[in-house]
Design goal:
The complex is a heterodimer.
Chain A (H helix, E strand, L loop, with lengths): L7 E2 L4 E13 L38 H13 L7 E2 L2 E4 L9 E4 L9 E6 L5 E13 L3 E3 L8 E3 L6 E7 L6 H18 L11 E10 L9 E6 L2 H20 L7 E6 L4 E7 L9 E2 L6 E2 L2 H10 L4 H12 L3 H7 L3 H12 L12 H20 L11 H12 L5 H14 L3 H7 L8 H14 L1 H8 L6 H11 L6 H13 L1
Helix pairs in contact in A: 1-4, 2-3, 5-6, 7-9, 8-9, 9-10, 12-14, 12-15, 14-15
Chain B lengths: L8 H9 L5 H14 L6 E4 L1 H16 L10 E5 L26 H8 L3 E6 L38 H8 L6 E5 L5 H6 L3 E4 L19 E6 L2 H11 L29 E5 L9 H16 L3 E5 L4 H19 L18 H12 L2 H14 L5 H21 L5 E5 L15 H5 L6 H6 L3 E8 L5 E7 L5 H15 L17
Parallel strand pairs in B: 2-3, 7-8, 7-9
Antiparallel strand pairs in B: 1-3, 4-6, 5-6, 5-10, 9-11, 10-11
The chains are: A alpha+beta, B alpha/beta.
Chain lengths: ~500, ~500
């Protein structure tokens, strides 16, 4: 990358930051990774607990094939190396919400190896974030400390639920890049249907490794901030952590490699445990589970089920619809949004398909990204909950393209469509908003205005050409914005020439 | 008439089918004898009520001609097979009050074929021991006594309750489990037939785990035929155990005739150990000669890594055990220390008091060999040696059909003066561990008496999943040795006078 890096400004100069992510994504599956208990969110505590999840004697894990397929699908989604041989290992530690006394994970041989995801900035810059691995592992249960002054309650509903841990290389150099990568990954798993990406339900969370260094110098010692469950917190945690490390270093201190927790209320991180008291997990291959062997046929079958991936879709939007890269990125961030846009384009008569004039596609994109998204965000709705259908939006855009109404008028029509559920045609008809393109009517109005402002006509003709806009404004105002701006411009120009 | 309790399993089966006696009668006879010889401490939990109810149901089936394979035959169950609704302790204080809500696959198979379960048999704590001295419920006594001493002897271990019970006619047959010799060694000490099937033959589901990659259930019986009958019922492919083998069980009918003509029998030179009593070596050599006389071919073979089997076993088994036993933490079931304040203390006190010394020793060894910095040197190396041991056997079976060795380097020893050095105790497994490490089927058959009148056994080790070859040589050895069972010499039996 020749791209200039983001820098933090310390008291003694610039600092660079290096970030790596470990993302935990809950696999979308009916049952847990090694047991038949349900994975349903929001059940009564301990309602979805099998004998294995409770760590009862003699209970054995049996791999859930559905979870294997989901992991492979995700790996294919980011171009990861699918390992036909992988192995489950035990990570041993004691905790009340870990009934077996070990987590089953893939420490030595993960199911997916190296891959990458491209990220794109608002200004169109792109970069690739490399992914080191994806492995499957079991989630732990939940310890609840705040319901009793002396007791801790344990809910094992999550115990044994399948997680994909996706580990990146330390390729990100700003909180923005980390947020972009995380968003991109979340979009991918949602496209694939391998994780619902619901951070507020804990389906997706991230551990962030952060270090800082002076430009040109070696990377600093890293700290890991655990369990960030929103992109906002992730961004805050990175900023806080980078600033903290810079302050320590600038004051002559040293960074201790440690695990830290983010406090969302205070917006700061604090130490959880240092490397010295880091646990020794005593990994060993799980003797209850033979190595997992996949064959090419299995992988190819899954490859066939892959939907069009976000980056392929984006490339197609750029190539076929002539959209700017950024627009294409925004419109392909979810399958639902892309589907909405494509349905709209389909319903737009002015759009003649791939290879024809791309203006209609661009105008529709503008309307989706600005006006539609603004209202969705304002009312906190998803695209599938939009009060204006793709077809209705296309009708509105078609009115602009055909010159029936101006873009400005359309901006007044759209909120009415949204609020009242009426079609654009109906609103334009009822409110008499049709654009006037009749040259005769416009000429009459122009002449009237010129007569009213004879002095200004003189000034214009004497060389004060800036006054052109004044005449346009007066005419538009007089005609309540309904005059076709193109025609108005032409008529004024002709008349002023004299 | 012979006492019902002294019948073999097959004799009893025939007697029941011929209506010579009822299932209730033979069950009651065993219950009476169990009460009479309670001092042997063979049973932790007798279940007379369930047994009689089962026997009654069996009598109805026998009357209706609906008898199953083991209909009405009273057997004993090692207390590490989880029994639904019946206390299952694994010989440990930490499970002293544990009542499973599920039935192990092996015990369910036996129940499904109509066998009557007399109770749960004593064992070394978590199957760790070679003398049944580590049980929380006290030592089991061997019904055999030396002819030159009145000292109580150990029944072997860990299936010591099983061996003592079958030898003392407190059940017709019993289940055991073998991790490094825990069926074969006690069978030898008590003059019985003990069969460890190939790893994967019997499901481990519902069997309290010691070392998952080695644990295998099998029967302790009075005869080789009985052993085949029990194995046939105990074994099954079980989708609930990922290490369960789908291989077809060979047909035993021809094998049980014990025809060894043309059978290539390997005699490994590495099994001649320093300090091994001459009488064991002599017994082994004589058996080889007798088999040769019956038409078998005796071939000298080499299993060069035999000497590494025991030290390797004592890395792998404790490593797996340290992880398998992590679930016993006092949080959800079993013993929970009443004085504990806080989770750390709960773990410490519960596990300190809940586990016996031998179990703690092995947890410590296992924890150590898996620790960061030691894993490669111990565990990984042990796994490599284990593969070499497997290769030794594979190479040998290119030349021979089966391998003949002693089962143990000594006969039963005193309860009061057992070896105090744990390593000396570990040596009891020296001849049995290699087959365990390689997952091979092996049988121990009583082959003669020591100078002081105690039983000694010889072992047949077969290629994986060839239980038929193992039974063939077993049947031949049984016939050649013409070993007299204990009950035909009741004066040797402890407590018989009372």
């Amino acid at each position: 990358m020749t791209q200039k890096r983001f820098m933090y400004q310390g008291n003694t100069g610039h600092w660079e930051v290096v970030i790596g992510l470990e993302v935990h994504a809950q696999v979308t599956s009916q049952a847990k990774l090694f047991a038949r208990a349900s994975t349903k969110f929001g059940s009564e505590p301990n309602a979805n607990v099998g004998l294995l999840d409770a760590g009862l004697p003699g209970m054995l894990p049996v791999i859930n094939q559905e979870c294997i397929a989901q992991a492979v699908k995700t790996g294919l989604g980011f171009g990861g190396q699918i390992n036909l041989y992988s192995q489950f290992d035990r990570k041993n530690y004691f905790y009340p919400d870990l009934p077996l006394g070990y987590q089953i994970t893939q420490h030595y041989h993960p199911i997916v190896g190296e891959g990458a995801l491209p990220i794109e900035f608002e200004d169109g810059r792109q970069k690739e974030v490399r992914i080191e691995r994806l492995h499957l592992e079991t989630d732990a249960g939940k310890s609840i400390h705040d319901q009793h002054p002396e007791k801790t309650y344990v809910d094992l509903n999550r115990a044994g639920v399948a997680l994909m841990e996706i580990v990146t290389k330390p390729d990100m150099h700003s909180a923005e890049e980390a947020a972009l990568f995380f968003t991109k990954l979340r979009n991918l798993v949602r496209y694939l249907g391998t994780c619902d990406g619901n951070m507020e339900q804990g389906s997706m969370r991230a551990d962030v490794n952060v270090s800082v260094n002076r430009p040109g110098e070696d990377w600093g010692t890293r700290c890991e901030v655990k369990n960030l469950n929103s992109i906002r917190f992730m961004t805050q945690a990175i900023h806080f952590e980078a600033a903290r490390q810079i302050e320590v270093l600038e004051n002559g201190g040293e960074i201790i490699q440690e695990t830290r927790l983010f406090d969302p209320n205070k917006g700061e991180t604090r130490p959880m445990r240092s490397k010295e008291d880091a646990q020794d997990y005593r990994y060993l291959p799980d003797p209850d589970l033979p190595p997992l062997r996949l064959d090419d046929v299995f992988v190819e079958e899954i490859r066939k089920t892959l939907p069009e991936l976000p980056h392929d879709k984006k490339a197609r939007f750029v190539a076929d619809f002539g959209l700017p890269s950024y627009d294409a990125e925004v419109l392909t961030q979810s399958r639902d949004i892309a589907d909405y846009y494509e349905a709209g384009l389909e319903a737009l008569p002015s759009w003649k398909g791939k290879g024809s004039d791309t203006k209609p596609a661009k105008i529709l994109a503008n309307w989706a990204i600005s006006e539609l998204f603004a209202l969705l965000n304002k009312e906190d709705l998803t695209i599938s909950e939009s009060k204006v259908s793709a077809k209705s939006l296309a009708e509105l855009v078609e009115l602009i393209l055909s010159g029936t109404i101006s873009g400005k008028i359309a901006k007044d029509v759209f909120p009415i469509m949204w609020a009242e559920g009426k079609s654009a045609d109906q609103i334009v008809e009822e409110k008499g908003l049709k654009q006037v393109s009749d040259t005769g009517a416009i000429e009459a109005e122009v002449e009237k205005i010129m007569a009213q402002h004879a002095d200004k006509v003189q000034e214009y003709r004497a060389g004060k050409e800036k006054l052109f806009g004044f005449f346009v404004g007066q005419v538009m105002k007089a005609m309540a914005g309904k005059a076709n701006p193109g025609v108005v411009n032409q008529v004024i120009q002709d008349k002023l020439k004299g | 008439m012979t006492e019902l309790t002294s019948l073999t399993l097959l004799e009893a089966k025939k007697g029941l089918e011929a209506k010579e006696f009822s299932a209730v009668e033979i069950t009651q006879a065993h219950l009476d004898r169990m009460a009479k010889f309670e001092s042997l401490n063979a049973y932790i939990t007798p279940t007379p009520d369930q047994a009689l109810a089962q026997a009654k149901a069996s009598d109805e089936r026998l009357a209706n001609g609906k008898a199953r394979k083991l209909e009405g035959l009273p057997i004993g169950m090692k207390d590490l097979f989880c029994s639904k609704g019946i206390k299952t302790t694994a010989g440990s204080k930490i499970l002293h009050n544990f009542v499973p809500s599920y039935e192990s696959t092996v015990s369910q198979n036996l129940l499904d074929e109509g066998s009557v379960v007399l109770g749960k048999l004593n064992m070394d704590e978590f199957a760790m021991g070679s003398a049944n001295l580590t049980s929380h419920f006290g030592p089991v006594l061997n019904p055999w006594k030396a002819n030159d001493s009145d000292e109580a002897l150990v029944p072997g271990g860990s299936s010591g309750g099983s061996s003592a019970a079958v030898a003392a006619d407190l059940c017709l047959a019993a289940t055991g489990s073998d991790t490094g010799g825990s069926i074969r060694q006690p069978a030898t000490f008590c003059g019985l037939v003990g069969l460890k099937p190939s790893y994967g033959r019997c499901s481990r589901w519902g069997m309290v785990a010691f070392a998952s990659s080695l644990d295998q259930a099998g029967p302790l019986t009075k005869t080789v035929e009985d052993s085949a009958l029990m194995l046939d019922v105990m074994a099954s492919y079980d989708p609930k155990d990922a290490t369960s083998a789908p291989e077809e069980m060979p047909d035993f009918t021809t094998a049980l005739k014990g025809d060894v003509k043309g059978l290539k029998i390997g005699v490994p030179s590495e099994y001649v150990m320093d300090g091994m009593p001459a009488e064991i070596k002599a017994l082994w050599e004589k058996m080889a000669l007798d088999l040769k006389a019956e038409g078998a071919e005796i071939i000298d073979i080499s299993l060069p890594h035999t000497h590494y089997a025991l030290p390797t076993y004592y890395i792998i088994a404790p490593a797996e055990a340290s992880s398998n036993l992590a679930r016993y933490d006092g949080v959800r079931y079993g013993f929970r220390h009443p004085d504990a304040k806080g989770i750390e203390e709960l773990y410490k006190l519960t596990r300190t008091e809940g586990f016996g010394d031998e179990v703690k020793r092995r947890i410590l060894i296992g924890t150590h060999v898996l620790s960061a910095g030691y894993y490669d040197a111990y565990y990984l190396k042990a796994q490599k040696v284990r593969r070499l041991i497997v290769h030794d056997f594979e190479a040998a079976y290119e030349k021979v059909d089966i391998i003949l060795t002693p089962t143990t380097p000594n006969a039963a020893f005193s309860v009061k003066n057992p070896p105090t050095d744990p390593v000396v105790m570990f040596l009891n497994d020296i001849f049995t561990v290699p087959a365990s490490m390689a997952g091979l089927p092996a049988i121990s058959v009583p082959a003669g008496l020591s100078g002081n009148g105690l039983p000694l056994g010889l072992q047949a080790i077969g290629p994986k999943f060839q239980e038929d070859q193992v039974l063939r040589l077993g049947a031949a050895m049984e016939r050649i040795a013409a070993f007299s069972r204990l009950t035909q010499n009741p004066s040797a039996m402890i407590g018989a006078a009372s």
